[in-house]
Amino acid sequence: MYIYEGLKNYTENIKYRFHMPGHGGISDSHVLHELSQILKYDVTETPLTDNLYNPEGFIKISEERITKGYESRASVISAGGATLCINTALALAAGEGKKIIVDRRCHKSVFNSMVLLDLKPVYIYPKYTENPAVNYIDCAELDNILYENEDAACVIVTNPTYYGIMNNVKVLSEVCRKHNKLFIVDNAHGSHLIKWENAKLHPLKQGAHFCIDSLHKTLPALTGGALLHSAVCDSADIKKAMSLFGSTSPSYLISLSVDLCCRFIESELEERLIEKTDALDKVKEFIEKNSDISVICGGRQEESYNFAKDPLRLTLDFYNSGVSAFNMAQILLKEGISVEMPDDRYMVLIVSPLINQNNIMSFAKTLIKNLRNNNQSFFEYNDIQKLRFKAALSPRMAAFAPKRKISFTESEGLVSGEDITPYPPGIPIITKGEIITSELIELYKDRIKTIEVI
Ligand SMILES: Cc1ncc(COP(=O)(O)O)c(C=O)c1O
Question: Which of 161, 229, 270, 417 has the fewest CB atoms within 10 Å, measured from its CB?
Answer without folding.
Answer: 270
